[in-house]
Design a protein that fits this description.
It comes from Rhizobium leguminosarum bv. trifolii (strain WSM2304). InterPro entries: ADH-like_N, ER, GroES-like_sf, NAD(P)-bd_dom_sf, YIM1/Zinc_Alcohol_DH_Fams. This is Alcohol dehydrogenase zinc-binding domain protein. It holds the Pfam family ADH_zinc_N_2. The chain is of the alpha/beta class. It has helices at about 40-45, 120-125, 125-140, 155-165, 180-185, 200-205, 215-220, 240-245, 250-270, 285-295, 310-320, and strands at about 1-5, 15-20, 30-40, 60, 65-75, 85-90, 100-105, 110, 145-150, 170-175, 190-195, 205-210, 225-235, 275, 305-310, 325-330. The strands form three sheets. Strands 3, 5, 6, 7, 8, 15 and 16 form a seven-stranded mixed sheet that branches. Strands 11-10-9-12-13-14 form a six-stranded parallel sheet, sandwiched between helices. It has a three-stranded antiparallel sheet with strand order 2-1-4, with no helix packed on it. The longest helix has 20 residues, at about 250-270.
């Protein structure tokens, strides 16, 4: 099969198109023919080696964290899925690699593709959908009437999270440029802050939850918009001790992560605010819930551009510009 390979950790390193053997199936796996995948900044960070302490992929490896496609083979312990099923997923860490023609995925990570989406649309959903679900439903436990601030409302996570927060009954604020304000409004944002001309920490106050996806300076400013008892959830760091325990990291790495997040945790505690770092995980059951919302029309995909498979490198470069509205998708096969 053909796949795009990272030969070594390298800043802005090129991907190489390679011929690889078809993946071997474990007992609980299905082999999926990849029909579409999507690009995330996580792919760039992995290629650049930013997460090699906690996700030590050994080059050469295949990038790609979103997939939509068709089951072509099933392992002996697979019970829920069968050959011919149209599925989508964010494969679990250490088993990613959707920039390829085929991928073996644990059945537990997969869900049936929403029947009202194309393969390209479905491929745009898993990583950002699960990130938003785990932040707002699982960790944040958002309730009707609460005030939620979602940063970068025109980005991949933002476009999904706004819709999910509105479905959960929250009042939603977001940051975006004036040019993307109509998009954010159409997704359900109640308050739109133009980050180029306004300081969100001066405009917003009394919020129950902030979903932070930006830099450390923005993270610190986010504390100011939360009320006592509120929660700050960051998907861009710094990692906290709970994350280190969850990953079962060694004592040294636990200490490193504790020190990295010490400042924001201390400030949050002083203000009576909870701080959590979220590194989303693969979860087929949650994807099934997301499928239901999509089929009901509560959430729609937002796709900026679609690239052919041979232009995967260009798709990654476009995502790195930070200009994408929603997701950037790659079609691999019909």
């Amino acid at each position: 099969m053909k796949a795009f390979v990272v030969d070594k950790y390298k800043k802005k390193g090129a991907l190489r198109l390679a011929s690889l053997p078809e993946p071997e199936l474990q007992d609980n796996d299905v082999l999926v023919r990849v029909q579409a995948t999507a690009v995330n900044l996580l792919d760039s960070k992995l290629r650049d080696g930013e997460f090699k302490l906690i996700l030590p992929y050994r080059p050469p490896f295949v990038l790609g964290h979103d997939v939509a496609g068709t089951v072509v083979r099933a392992g002996p312990r697979v019970r829920r899925l069968k050959v011919g099923d149209e599925v989508y997923a964010r494969p679990r860490d250490h088993r990613v690699g959707t920039f390829a023609e085929f991928i073996a995925i644990d059945e537990a990570d997969l869900a049936l593709k929403p029947n009202n989406l194309s393969m390209a649309e479905a491929a745009s959903i898993p990583l950002v959908g699960l990130t938003a679900w785990q932040a707002l439903v699982e960790v944040g436990k958002v309730k009707p009437g609460q005030k939620v601030f979602i940063q970068a409302g025109s980005g991949g996570v933002g476009t999904f999270a706004i819709q999910l927060a509105k479905h959960l009954g929250a009042m939603v604020a977001t940051t975006t440029s004036a040019g993307n304000a109509e998009l954010a409004k159409s997704l359900g944002a109640d308050v739109i802050v133009d980050y180029k001309s306004q300081d969100f920490e001066k405009v917003l106050s009394g919020y129950d939850l902030v979903l932070n996806s930006q830099d450390p300076k923005t993270l610190e400013k986010s504390l100011a918009v939360l009320k006592p008892g509120g929660r700050l959830i960051s998907i861009s760091g710094p990692p906290d001790p709970a994350f280190a325990r969850e990953l079962g990291l060694n004592l040294f790495l636990k200490l490193v992560l504790r020190l990295l997040s010490r400042g924001v945790r201390k400030k949050a505690k002083r203000l009576g605010i909870g701080y959590s770092f979220l590194f989303m995980r693969a979860e087929g059951r949650q994807l099934n819930e997301i499928t239901r919302l999509i089929e009901q029309g509560a959430i729609r995909p937002v796709v900026d551009k679609v690239f052919p498979f041979e232009k995967t490198g260009d798709a990654l470069a476009y995502v790195e510009t930070g200009r994408a509205k929603g997701k950037v998708v790659i079609t691999v096969a019909d």
